[in-house]
Write a structure and sequence with these properties.
Blueprint: H1 2-21, E1 35-42, E2 47-48, E3 52-59, E4 62-69, E5 79-88, H2 101-107, E6 112-116, E7 124-128, H3 133-149, H4 156-164, H5 172-180, H6 191-209, H7 213-218, H8 221-239, H9 244-261, H10 268-282, H11 290-305, H12 313-336, E8 338-340, H13 343-368, H14 373-398, E9 404-406, H15 412-425, H16 440-445, E10 460-463, E11 468-471
Parallel strand pairs: 4-6
Antiparallel strand pairs: 1-3, 1-5, 2-3, 3-4, 5-6, 5-7, 8-9, 10-11
């Protein structure tokens, strides 16, 4: 086992070294902070805001994120436009422990940001190209969802988010409800959705293949089911635009599928570690993604909670929920400075409801888009109808007093110590030192903060965008 881990880390080190040697794409400085005439291709599905449309624009080898103000035209992916733009380097707030917007744009492959200048030179559509065919397909699906759910669905933005990972049509109030109830992860196509789709396809193919003696004599039915589920998961990930979270889930599912096909018994914790290393080998900077840390921490906590298989099903279920809440608590406070106190009951209802009712109906509607528009509209209407009672319940959770706890953790080592304390508290074996994990709570509620002595003061300068603010 130790040899394998060393082997994995050697390959990760090589992958990181190769990635570091790759040339960095930097847009020339003379093309920044001035109005330029450029020609490029619309590379992403436009996001419709109240005052502007935002889209990615491929200009030679550089990818730009542009805002088009004042009645932007209906842009389609793959269109080549001639635009007058003003560009600048991506940047964000310089405050410590705050969201690094520049790093986020770098992870998205964005080389510069800017806006389209239409005062003197209106944009000119040149032609439609065959570039970004997958994104063109996703935009076509989004338009059909809008068309077939218009007038009958108040939650078409949620349906689009569940199917193709596009959240531009979601109402701000709905997104706020998901955030404050700790169910926002349902709107990101990740391991939960990919695993559910793969599981449904696996069971269907397994059921069909077991009824064919010829197939079973050629290959075991489980092999067909594994291959079919992986293909289905790949198609679903493609519909989501191969987002980072989706690719991560696809790699983890591929590890499971390879173990099944090779007839290898792979322990779950070892499979998680292998997926972790593979993702870092493919994308050595994946550790910078918040979703990467949170997803692997959550899966690791679930496996840790179920080490003791002698417990009853209900005992393990409550143990898993409690460990997930307390284990993710320091991470959530570190990254988001808040945590939903109603997340456990909200997720107990929302996860199975969305997974086994809303998503299957939405997927059926997506399939029927190719066969019968009336059936597609019916499925989308039923999916929207299934969301109505759920959103009412989540809104009730949101309006409860103290449903959200706003708190922050100042130091990264406090996060690590609190996380380890939770693991000690939930240690599988009953030991006299297990309750020492409660001491980690003191770091959370009584953080070590330096307070100026009498007669002195502490001055903090904050970056607020258009200027600076001082806190005394």
């Amino acid at each position: 086992m130790s040899v394998r881990i060393a082997f994995y880390f050697i390959f990760y080190s090589l992958a990181f070294s190769v990635h570091a040697l790759l040339p960095i794409k930097k847009i020339p400085h003379q093309q920044l902070q001035r109005t330029l005439k450029i020609s490029g291709i619309v590379a992403s599905i436009p996001q419709h805001k109240s005052r502007y449309d935002r889209f990615d624009f491929q200009y030679h080898q550089w990818r730009l994120r542009l805002n088009w103000y004042n009645n932007a035209p209906t842009l389609k992916v793959g269109e080549r436009w001639q635009l007058w733009v003003k560009l600048k380097k991506p940047h964000g707030f310089k405050n410590p422990n705050s969201f690094n917007y520049a790093s986020y744009l770098h992870r998205q492959g964005i080389d510069a940001v800017g806006y389209v200048s239409t005062k003197k030179h209106p944009g000119k559509l040149l032609k439609q190209t065959n570039r970004y065919l997958l994104t063109q397909l996703r935009q076509s699906i989004l338009n059909k969802i809008r068309q077939h759910s218009a007038g009958t669905s108040n939650y078409r933005g949620i349906i689009a988010a569940l199917l193709i990972g596009v959240r531009t049509d979601m109402a701000p109030n709905d997104w706020q409800i998901f955030q404050k109830t700790g169910t926002a992860h349902l709107m990101a196509i990740s391991g939960l959705h990919v695993g559910m789709v793969a599981g449904i396809i696996y069971m269907l193919i397994l059921w069909c293949c077991k009824r064919s003696m010829r197939l079973c004599l050629w290959r075991p039915a489980q092999d067909f089911a594994v291959v079919g589920s992986l293909i289905g998961a790949l198609i679903y990930a493609a519909l989501a635009g191969f987002a980072v979270s989706t690719v991560r889930a696809l790699i983890m599912l591929s590890v499971w599928g390879a173990a099944k096909l090779l007839r290898r018994v792979l322990p779950l914790m070892q499979a998680l570690m292998l997926a972790f290393i593979l993702i870092l080998m493919i994308d050595p900077q994946a550790y910078q993604d918040t979703g990467f840390i949170l997803s692997f921490a959550a899966v690791g906590l679930i496996l840790y909670a179920n080490i003791n298989s002698t417990l009853s099903v209900w005992h393990r279920a409550f143990r898993t929920k409690g460990l997930l809440f307390l284990g993710m608590l320091p991470l959530s406070l570190w990254y988001f400075q808040q945590i939903s106190l109603v997340a456990i009951p909200a997720n107990i209802v929302a996860i199975p409801w969305v997974s086994f009712v809303t998503v299957p109906l939405s997927l059926l509607g997506l399939v029927f888009l190719l066969l019968n528009n009336n059936l597609a509209q019916l499925c989308f209407s039923l999916a929207s109808l299934s969301l109505k009672p759920l959103m009412l319940l989540l809104a009730w959770f949101e309006n409860l007093p103290y449903s959200v706890w706003h708190w922050g953790i100042a130091h990264s080592y406090d996060v690590v110590l609190i996380f380890i304390s939770v693991l000690i508290l939930f240690y599988p074996k009953k030991t006299h030192w297990r309750w020492s994990g409660v001491l980690g709570g003191f770091l959370l509620f009584f953080p070590m903060v330096s307070v100026p002595k009498f007669g002195n003061m502490s001055l903090t300068v904050l970056d607020v965008g258009q200027g600076l603010a001082t806190v005394i």
